[in-house]
Design brief:
Largest sheet of chain A: 7 strands, mixed
Oligomer: heterodimer
Number of helices of chain B: 6
Strand content of chain B: under 5%
Distance between the termini of chain A: 59 Å
Shape of chain A: globular
Largest sheet of chain B: none
Structural class of chain B: mainly alpha
Largest interface: A-B, 131 and 107 residues
Radius of gyration of chain B: 28 Å
Helix content of chain B: 55-70%
Chain lengths: 943, 214
């Protein structure tokens, strides 16, 4: 055997050396080929989308130049330069990019090329660097509901808004404060937050190109108009705030799109829900006119991360849909003719809700200004019609976009106790809006499961005395989760606001970002990355946080996945949290675009680039849709969480009084076969540590053995069993009557550049006709057949599901069945027909790797990891647990918000069959590149 | 009915039939069955040592492509953001660094930077983001597959494809690694010269360089 190995190795080496003399590299990008009509950008690749999805070549019709010296790069638009009538104008006296008073307006300003911030580069001695574990992260507090406007419901008015009032919050010690020693910086202006990022480039950092002279004068004080090393770098982000019960900020400047009277942060303050009590939210779009990642859409020489070759944001629409404000071809001062760049639609991720309030991707709405500009587009029916032809006309439904800048959603909240969360879901640019910041937690509690235990006896009422009923009318009062109350219920006041937040129950959004040296988030060809040469720098194509699109000849700016090299927890870089030596409930959400995290805990701080030693055991208590059957001791002291997933952990810090415990990460990016933080030379060397817990020496919730009491925790949580846990996993092999739906995942590869062109499900784009049409009330098994190189965190909306098993399969032979050879890459361009999906069953190999109720992944999920080269099997009941039997009144009118048909308590909600949902990969960059499809629940009576 | 529809319509609803590959014991109603261990993606599938070696070579190549391309990007940015060329010129202008030496170092950094850039922005002989990952998926899919009359032939086919991909990619990543080493060396030489020049001149015109970013 050794001989065989040596022969193979020698053969590889021989070929390698022979080829080394003339490696077939082919120049494909400017400035190596600056020719033709478009010197700055190459001609679109002939493999690019065609037909109805044809691309408009860059620069787009209607575009101008902000810098006349770029004329040679754009001969087609050399004669037209940007002026102060578009996104460079002052709207209502403020810049359309921010009302925070720091952004310039009134003149077309050229873009300044930025540099990346490398996390482990250090500034000169004596100046501060981006610190680790220096700032304590805030455990988000809750909005206070209005309980009177809608009887028997909690009402909120939530505004999607640029960051606002951050310095006020920072001065109250809620966030890092850059105005105190050793930074002594200027206060953070509205529109921005401070993550702790600090200029670490010895020669200084770049002045923000968007900033006005005043802001530049305050921070750009080094030689050459740079930001001195050691200076705090502020980041323009969008956030979420509540105008109805937030913290008022009197005297703030007003903008034409906003009242500007509250605090908006990244992440948001939380909304806390109670099972069976509906929550009504008026989601209000008060974002600035232009997006953080495309501040001047009509300027061809300003970077724009919104790739107008993707669905929803393309540069061309049907002329019949055009309006005076929105020409059909090209881009305008608000973005694409399809959709303004500042649009938003809320998805309450994990909620089981009616179609009209699920945040369907095409049901977006703009701010007051873009809602008006796109009125003609907005008022059209959502396109396409969500009609499954084979079930027509029973399922023929449409949704309409709001005509204003808000939508009023009513959530039934009939779900199990779980941590759900809200984020954007707009078509084609969810990844931009998620990375820009706005999102928040939404924990749901079921009071029926927490009755007191007195003297070892559960005091829950029984029979008719129990007023908490299941959908079938049975009582559900018990004490099954009272044992968790000692870590869940205690509150502590956040000084000096005296706002109570959970004391032993943490909510952490874990995210990755890359940054530019002006403080902006480094997004693919967003701020900081500009393709054209001639500005002194050419940025390379590649696969790391500091490069542009992987296939710019097809998609000018899109990258298949976004991986940052900085860790943020609740918007703070590498923070710490003080804890008492006792039990804590730690709830985490992966709010990243693409990054999975393999999370562990360690008493040893891993050096940058080192592999963490996870020596702290912990229990996994719950995942996306609630509690496991029993808490599970994390195998190997670690769990892996991918975008969209949530995990809840129980950690006992009582073993580490006075010590530091680090939350660590060892996941490769991309997952599962990419670069780990500990690979030699890894650009993610600093990603091996997420945050620090500084353990005190006193206090804490202690273990108290088996008895459940109000002030201590069971020593072994794994002994706590939920008697009501419902395991819906079918036995293997499946019964012949089981409905099994197989779906393959494919990546379209460019035959010329060999780079990714996009992701798909079953080889078809999002707007292909609906094929996933489960019957209402049915149980379906779905099998994800992953032909791609990545793990995809798959998220079907509406339903919770359980993972049944994973199993290897013969990928090549499956492709041969699908597209004719083992090496073909399946997939269609828009307009193409879906092929018959082959049955993968004969190609499965080995045995199934079972996921059971005893697994970390064994609970109900709403996001499941579908690994490459494997078939991942899930099962879900397509039921709508809310009451949908009332008489329709007038949904959408005052007092009767969307989602409801009966508008006085008890509320009656629209039926699950009244509109579409989506299911998709929760890698946002994938979902926006067509790895998303519509699902439509059809009546059970459909043949 | 559903099965028929699956054939005539693009609906992937099928009735699953039991197969040997999916057979497994039904979970016991009395006890929660233990979950199966997860697949280790860092280890080759079962197979011959030669096939496992090829698998490992492809796995390493995929990682090396990502690492070397990332390193190239960072080195290029380091040269730029730390203003290596500008600081050489500044020291030369002050007379702290001989002009010939400064020009030599500037030329070396510029040329290595350009070579690195050329390698990065040119079309690669393999997918610059996925490397040989798709050929690897095909190969390991066969390695994992159940024994059967087709397996030997499929292994041979996928082995050839993966070997060819590795053969194309290995020299490419090796060339970039060399370029990275050369650019890293050029930057380091320049920094040494700048530091030495700065030590002889007072006060320095610009801050001392930071340690090289990795």
């Amino acid at each position: 055997m050794k001989l065989v190995k040596a022969v193979v190795a020698a053969a590889v080496l021989a070929v390698s050396f022979a080829a080394a003399a003339a490696i077939p590299f082919t120049p494909i990008l400017p400035p190596l080929q600056p020719s033709g009509n478009n010197n700055a950008f190459p001609t679109q690749n002939p493999n690019g989308p065609t037909g109805t999805a044809q691309q408009v070549n860059y620069p787009y019709p209607g575009q101008c130049l902000a810098d006349p010296t770029n004329a040679a790069l754009f001969p087609l638009i050399a004669a037209k330069s940007c002026d102060a009538t578009g996104s460079f104008a002052c709207t209502g006296g403020v810049a359309p990019q921010s009302a925070g008073g720091w952004a310039a307006c009134g003149v077309a300003a050229p873009f300044t090329v930025l540099n990346p911030i490398i996390p482990n580069s250090v500034p000169p001695a004596g100046t501060p660097a981006t610190p680790k574990f220096a700032f304590e992260v805030l455990n988000p507090f809750d909005y206070t509901p209005d309980t009177t406007t809608y009887p028997n419901a909690d009402y909120y008015e939530i505004k999607l808004h640029e960051a606002w009032g951050f310095q006020v919050a920072a001065s109250l010690k809620l966030f890092p404060d850059p105005t105190v020693a050793p930074y002594n910086g200027i206060g953070v202006p509205n529109g921005m937050q401070w993550t702790g990022l600090t200029c670490n480039i010895p020669t200084g950092c770049t002045c923000p190109p968007l900033a006005n002279a005043t802001f530049k004068g305050q921070i750009c004080t080094a030689v050459g108009g740079k930001i001195p090393a050691g200076t705090p770098l502020y980041t323009q982000i969008w956030g979420v705030g509540s105008s109805k019960n937030g913290v008022p900020l009197a005297g703030q400047p007003a903008a034409p799109w906003s009242a500007n009277d509250f605090v908006a942060t990244w992440p948001s303050v939380s909304i806390r829900g109670t099972r069976d009590r509906p929550v009504v939210v008026k989601w209000i779009n008060e974002f600035p006119n232009n997006h953080v990642y495309c501040p001047h859409p009509e300027a061809a020489d300003w970077p724009c991360a919104i790739d107008r070759t993707f669905m929803g944001v393309k540069a061309r629409i049907d002329p019949a849909l055009a309006t005076a404000a929105v020409p059909p071809d090209g881009v305008n001062l608000y973005g694409s003719p399809m959709q303004p760049d500042n649009s938003w639609v809320t998805h309450l991720h994990g909620e089981e809700d009616p179609p009209s309030v699920d945040g369907f991707a095409e049901k977006w709405f703009g701010n007051p200004i873009t809602a008006g500009a796109y009125a003609g587009v907005s008022q059209n029916f959502v396109n396409p019609p969500f009609e499954a032809p084979e079930f027509s006309p029973l399922a023929a439904k449409t949704l309409k976009r709001p005509t204003g800048n808000f939508d009023l959603y009513t959530y039934p909240l009939v779900k199990e106790e779980a941590l759900i969360w809200f984020h954007d879901h707009t078509l084609g640019k969810t990844h931009h809006n998620v990375i820009a910041g706005p999102a928040g937690f939404f924990p749901v509690k079921d009071p029926a499961k927490h009755f007191p235990i007195v003297g070892g006896v559960c005091t829950a009422p029984t029979g008719a005395a129990c007023t908490f009923k299941n959908a079938d009318g049975t009582s559900r009062c018990d004490c099954s989760y009272t044992w968790l109350d000692p870590v869940t219920e205690p509150r502590v006041a956040v000084t000096p606001l005296a706002i109570p937040v959970p004391k032993y129950d943490f909510f952490f959004a874990i995210q990755d970002r890359a940054f530019n040296d002006d403080g902006s988030i480094n997004f693919s060809n967003g701020l900081g990355q500009v393709i054209p040469a001639g500005k002194g720098v050419v940025l390379p194509v590649g696969y790391n946080p500091i490069t542009v699109g992987a296939n710019p000849q097809v998609h000018p700016t899109w990258i298949p996945e976004y991986f940052g090299d900085h860790v943020l927890v609740n918007g703070v870089l590498w923070p710490f949290k003080g804890v008492e030596p006792g039990w804590y409930r730690i709830r985490v959400v992966d709010g990243s675009d693409s990054r999975c995290w393999t999370i562990g805990f360690s008493t040893i701080l891993p050096a940058p680039g080192a592999k963490a030693t996870n020596n702290v055991p912990f229990f996994v208590l719950a995942s996306d849709q609630g509690y496991l059957k029993s808490p599970v001791l994390a195998p190997g002291n670690q769990i892996t969480m991918c975008p969209g997933e949530r995990y809840e952990m129980l950690v006992d810090f009582s073993l580490y009084p006075g010590l530091s415990v680090f939350m660590t990460n060892s996941a490769p990016a991309p997952f599962p076969a990419g670069i780990t933080p500990y690979a030699g030379g890894s650009p993610f060397a600093e990603m091996n540590t997420i945050m620090k817990f500084a353990v005190g020496t006193t206090g804490g919730v202690k273990s108290c053995g088996g008895a459940v009491t109000t002030n201590c925790m069971p020593a072994n949580p794994a002994l706590q069993v939920d008697p009501n846990f419902k395991d819906i996993r079918p036995a293997l092999p499946f019964a012949p009557t089981t409905t099994v739906r197989q779906i393959y995942m494919n990546e379209r590869i460019d035959g010329i550049t060999q780079s990714p062109m996009g992701m798909q499900l079953n080889g078809v784009p999002f707007e292909y006709k609906v094929t996933e049409t489960p019957k209402k009330g049915s149980r379906e098994v779905w099998q994800y057949v992953n032909l791609t190189a990545d793990t995809h965190p798959m998220h079907p909306h509406l339903v919770k599901h359980q993972i049944v098993a994973r199993q290897n399969f013969n990928v090549g032979q499956y492709k041969a069945l699908l597209c004719g050879s083992t090496t073909c890459q399946p997939g269609t361009t828009p307009g193409g027909e879906m092929q018959v999906v082959p049955d993968v069953t004969p190609l499965l190999s080995g045995g199934p790797m079972l996921v059971t109720a005893a697994s970390v992944e064994g609970g109900f999920k709403d996001v499941s990891q579908a690994h490459p080269g494997m078939v991942t099997t899930i099962v879900a009941d397509w039921i709508a647990p809310w009451n949908a039997t009332g008489a329709p009144t007038a949904p959408g009118t005052a007092g009767c918000p969307a989602g409801t048909v009966g508008c006085t308590a008890p509320y009656v909600f629209e039926d699950v069959t009244t509109g579409p949902y989506v299911w998709h990969c929760h890698i946002n960059s994938h979902e926006d590149s067509e790895m998303m499809r519509t699902s439509l629940v059809v009546p059970a009576t459909v043949p | 009915m559903i099965r028929t529809m699956a054939l005539i319509l693009p609906v992937t609803v099928i009735v699953a039939l039991a197969s040997a590959g999916t057979a497994a014991a039904a979970p016991s109603a009395a006890a929660v069955p233990a979950p199966s261990p997860a697949r280790d993606y860092d280890k080759p599938p079962p197979g011959s040592k030669a096939d496992q070696a090829l698998w490992q070579a492809a796995y390493d190549l995929d990682n090396d492509i990502l690492l070397e391309r990332a390193a190239a990007s960072r080195l290029q940015h380091e040269a730029k953001t730390h203003e290596v060329l500008e600081r050489l010129e500044a020291q030369s202008a002050k007379g702290a660094l001989p002009a010939d030496r400064a020009n030599e170092l500037r030329k070396r950094v510029s040329e290595e930077w350009a070579r690195s850039m050329d390698l990065l922005v040119s079309q690669w002989p393999v997918d610059p983001t996925r490397g040989c990952r798709y050929d690897l998926l095909n190969f390991e899919g066969v390695m994992f597959s159940n024994e059967g009359p087709q397996k030997a032939g499929q292994l041979d086919d996928t082995r050839k494809a993966l070997s060819a991909c590795v053969a194309r990619g290995t020299p490419a990543v090796r060339a970039l690694r060399r370029a990275n080493e050369d650019l890293r060396g050029a930057i380091a030489a320049a920094e040494v010269a700048i530091a030495a020049a700065a030590a002889t001149a007072a006060p320095p015109a610009l801050p001392a360089a930071a340690p090289a970013a990795r």
